[in-house]
Design goal:
The protein is an all-beta fold. It is built from no helices and 35 strands. It has a four-stranded antiparallel β-sheet with strand order 1-28-27-26, with no helix packed on it. A four-stranded antiparallel β-sheet has the order 2-3-4-5, with no helix packed on it. The radius of gyration is 22 Å and the shape is globular.
Length: 481
């Protein structure tokens, strides 16, 4: 049977409403986070697999002072974390915010405003850490004695499982620098991707920082040319390297989608620039498929007469960045003339889901924006007439393997416990990922030949087990019942 697909708007045609992040949840539904009404209200909602709304979350943390959600994840207990920025109506500041939501009802479990009373901060991207805490990145504004913003710095915060900060770090130079995406490293540290006005050869450049587990900077690098380049999304790849996505100006009026693959030292393995039909194209999100290819989402200008924009998705070869296929999307209502994707995730059925904004320029006097969600099959089709059968294979076949007979992972399927055994070689490190690419278990430098792991709290589904040995890395697939 063909996969389920849909193309829907939510909070239709309000003056300001957009979706910034989407999570393909383990129950088959979708969590969408964003904001409505000029940023005055934080907004998230949960749908079933058909895109029908199950519950909505609305919270005003300050009236007319700027409340936004930019990021969302599903955590190991099955509930959700959303994050962004919320305003302080008294001090007229904005603070980085973390909120935990009940997976069944959308009710608030806890809210954390993180920052200093005399500073403003933002949270653009959050990840769960192996100790069940959280790390998020964004920016902190620096101000003079009169309260005027002078510059901003990259901001990185590590919290415990309750969202209480354990440490905070800032990075950057004397100009404007900020982060949009954070990823965990194999060593237990962090890769932070963003944009810098302080360093590099252009007006601004894509900015990458690597830290240790306590947030101490190990190195920083910039990427791009003599014009303007910026970083939006980073993902750790199956081979241990990283993919970076964003935008780059290839001329003073032409923006191209920018994608790079780098190694763990930040050295470029390959990079590609993709121009749009007209002048503008950019990438806002990147993921890696279980089969190895990368998928990026973003937007592309369709014409100059009507200033139309399409949401786009590209599938890329992971070895050189060449395009496998590209699709463009718009809401079925022809009155909507601008469309943007800001977030992408991998679905349990092998398809893709993207969240963003659809703009209706025929809505009264002013254009109106709506939250926009598109679910496709694995070929990027969003129409039932084009959808194909291409679900992820069910089973326990290995994704990538070296010396596969040296490592045993059992029982398979598993219930409450997983045992990893290597009778010949020492196991140096173990990482286990769910199908969304989130780390659910990590242990480094085990120096053991056998290890038992408690899996009783994990959701049922498929997991990828990565075992580093003296002879190389083995990756296997296991089912948790």
């Amino acid at each position: 049977m063909a996969q389920n697909v849909f193309n829907k708007k939510y909070n239709p045609d309000v003056t300001e409403s957009r979706a910034e992040a989407v999570v393909a949840a383990s129950d088959g539904g979708y969590l969408v986070a964003g904001f409505t009404h000029f940023g005055g209200v934080l907004g998230a909602f949960k749908t079933n697999y058909l895109g029908d709304t199950l519950w909505s979350f609305i919270l005003e943390l300050g009236i007319n002072v700027g409340n936004y959600l930019f990021t969302a994840i599903e955590v190991t207990d099955g509930n959700y974390i959303v994050g962004g920025v919320s305003g302080d109506p008294i001090l007229h500041r904005s603070h980085a915010t973390l909120i935990k939501l009940n997976k069944n009802t959308g009710d608030t479990i806890w809210v954390r405003k993180i920052g200093l009373p005399n500073r403003s901060e933002r949270n653009y991207n959050v990840k769960q850490t192996p100790d069940n805490g959280f790390v998020f990145c964004g920016l902190r504004f620096n101000e003079d004695s009169l309260g005027n913003t002078t510059d901003d710095d990259v901001y990185l915060v590590k919290t415990d499982s309750m969202g209480i900060p354990q440490w905070k770090k800032t990075y950057g130079g004397s100009n404007y620098d900020y982060a949009q995406s954070v990823e965990l490293t194999a060593e237990g540290g962090y890769m932070i991707l963003g944009t810098t006005y302080s360093y590099g050869v252009g007006q601004y450049n894509m900015y990458l920082i690597k830290t240790d587990s306590l947030g101490n900077m190990l190195w920083q690098k910039t990427y791009g040319g003599s014009l303007e380049d910026y970083g939006q999304s980073i993902v750790k790849m199956n081979d241990g390297n990283y993919a970076l996505a964003g935008g780059t100006y290839v001329s003073t009026d032409t923006l191209a989608g920018y994608i790079l693959k780098i190694d763990t030292a930040g050295i470029v393995i390959w990079q590609k620039k993709y121009r749009g039909i007209i002048k503008q194209q950019e990438f806002s999100g990147v993921k890696q498929l279980p089969t190895g290819e990368l998928v990026v989402c973003g937007s592309m200008q369709g014409d100059t007469l009507n200033n139309s924009f399409y949401g786009i998705v590209k599938k890329l070869n992971e070895n050189d960045g060449s395009a496998v296929w590209q699709n463009q999307y718009q809401y079925y209502n022809t009155d909507s003339t601008q469309h943007y994707f800001y977030g992408i995730d991998l679905c349990l059925d092998g398809g893709l889901v993207m969240a963003g904004m659809s703009t209706n320029f025929h809505h009264g006097v002013n254009p109106a924006n709506s939250m926009w969600l598109v679910k496709t099959d694995c070929m990027g089709n969003d129409s039932i007439w084009d959808s194909v059968s291409c679900s992820l294979p069910i089973g326990v076949s290995e994704v990538v393997a070296k010396d596969i007979n040296d490592v045993l992972v059992y029982p398979n399927p598993a219930t409450n416990q997983i045992t990893i055994e290597n009778s010949q070689l020492r196991i140096n490190a173990i990482r286990i990922y769910n199908v969304l690419g989130s780390v659910v278990y990590q242990q480094l430098t085990t120096n053991n030949q056998q290890l038992s792991i408690d899996a009783s709290t994990w959701n049922a589904g498929v997991y990828f087990v990565e075992v580093e040995t003296e002879k190389g890395t083995v990756r296997k697939k296991i089912i948790k019942e």
